[in-house]
Amino acid sequence: MDRGKENTLLYLIPYRKGTPLTSYLRLPRFLVSMALSNDAKLLYALLLDRAGISAENGFTEPDGTIRLYFTLNEAKEKLHKSRQVATRAFHELEQSGLIVRRKQGLGRPAIITLNIPQEESK
Question: Which domains does the chain have, with CATH numbers?
């Protein structure tokens, strides 16, 4: 999709007190300070959004962990980046431990589970 054309579809209004927000992504604060590319951070926010949908639809593991599906092509399209950049973003998230991808084989999408950092109890 042409990015310039995508922006012309929006009707822009000033953000004022009481202005309702339409759909948005949650970007957890812990991501801001992590040594990840912005593409990886945005991908995590997209995965977190998808996890919410998966939870609503009952896509959970027996232990309650939410599982989701998000293909490389979806990441490429949502990030407006190349396959290589999307692959690198997934790899960064895996290396940091924020996601776990389990390949299913036979052309089926990987099962992804998210991890969220918790402060250690003292």
Answer: 28-114 (1.10.10.10)
